[in-house]
Design brief:
363 residues; alpha+beta; Major capsid protein gp5 fold; 2 domains; 6 helices; globular
Length: 363
């Protein structure tokens, strides 16, 4: 049976989402936190898959020239190998609302509020998926959470146990910030953290860790500097350090009034520490765990590590169902992250450094 609507043309326009509304979020607290970590590629509504590009490399069995050669002379054979790209499916989110028309009266404000609530739900779900990943019913990863992916694809030697250092006993020249400017910097390959740009793009940690980096570091007679000031790349002569500070929230979701249970809040998960012999003060925190006692140093990778693919405007349709004065409207939106998409022969999360047991530096 055909479906008809009691909404006027003007009210139907209210139900439609604004163009590129997902790229221009207003009126929400820190909406789209995932975009502080990753660039976003806009996709069309019809895009279900994105394709990794193919790449050609010199085969490792190729012969390099050995010994002295005359000018212009070359030796050896070159073999090529071609890596073929793969298709990655971008997850789809679908939500809707049922509207009850009373005596033919339609509240346009309520309609727009319900529409905007669904847009915010899409945004929150994408943020949470970026941090915690998405898994199918069998537990297989559609994609991993960002920190889990970094830990699984970084050099194991770049995971530093800060409890091995005691600044109060003279380690790190007594300055906690040297764990970054000296120890962490000693781990880099020069591929992403380079001689021309000797800094990481982001330092990411949760609040209890950042509170330690607010402690005073030095006093030069003119001003007191915090430990964080000491590792800001534009504040020291060596320019070694970090450009941006990112506060990772303990949880992400939709908060309700005090009369409601915060069931829609979900913790932001960190992968388990490799160095777990230290008893972190965060172990006893109700809203944190010892696995949160970490700081991630992430270089500017231009999408080589991970990149977001998202629709700017969700698809909408309705009414798709009508029962008396009730009508249902639905919205569909695609958004997801593609990880390790660059085909780099050198590896994936190169020059990423993870500091574990950070609070031990400040005891």
């Amino acid at each position: 049976m055909a479906t008809t609507t009691v909404l006027s043309e003007e009210q139907m326009e209210v139900v439609q989402p604004e163009e590129d509304i997902m790229f221009d979020r207003k009126g929400f607290d820190r909406g789209g936190i995932r975009r502080e970590f990753a660039s976003t590629v806009a996709i069309d509504p019809s895009t279900k898959y994105v394709e990794e590009g193919s790449a050609t490399f010199v085969h490792p069995d190729s012969d390099y020239a050995q010994g002295d050669t005359a000018e212009g002379e070359t030796l050896g054979n070159i073999e090529l190998v071609k890596e073929t790209g793969k298709n990655v499916k971008i997850p789809r989110y679908t939500h809707g609302f049922t509207y009850d028309v009373e005596d033919g009266e339609v509240d346009s404000t309520l309609l727009s509020d319900m529409r905007d609530a669904i847009m915010e739900l899409f945004m929150v779900e994408a943020d949470l998926a970026f941090f915690n990943g998405i898994y199918d019913e069998q537990g297989n990863a559609i994609f991993e959470g960002v920190f889990e992916w970094l830990q699984n694809n970084m050099d194991a030697e770049n995971i530093i146990d800060c409890s091995d250092y005691d600044p109060s006993a003279g380690d790190l020249d007594g300055v906690q910030a040297n764990i970054i400017t000296e120890v962490a910097y000693g781990k880099i390959t020069g591929e992403y953290v380079t001689a021309e740009s000797p800094q990481w793009d982001i330092a990411a940690a949760k609040h209890p860790v950042w509170s330690k980096w607010n402690s005073y570091g030095t006093y030069d007679g003119a001003m007191v500097e915090s430990q964080w000031n000491l590792v800001q790349a534009d504040r020291n002569d060596a320019q070694v350090g970090v450009n941006r500070r990112n506060l990772v929230p303990p949880e992400i979701g939709l908060r309700g009034p005090r009369s409601m249970n915060d069931d829609l809040m979900r913790p932001v998960e960190m992968p388990g520490r490799v160095n777990d012999s230290y008893s972190s003060p965060l172990d006893s925190r109700e809203d944190y765990s010892g696995d949160d006692d970490v700081m991630w140093l992430i270089p500017r990778h231009n999408g080589d590590f991970y990149e977001l693919y998202e629709q700017g405007t969700p698809d909408s349709r309705g009414p798709i169902e009508k029962d008396g004065w009730q009508e249902r409207y639905e919205y569909k939106w695609r958004g997801g992250v593609v990880q390790g998409f660059s085909q780099r022969a050198e590896g994936n999360a190169v020059d990423v450094v993870k500091l574990e047991n950070v609070t031990a530096l400040f005891e």
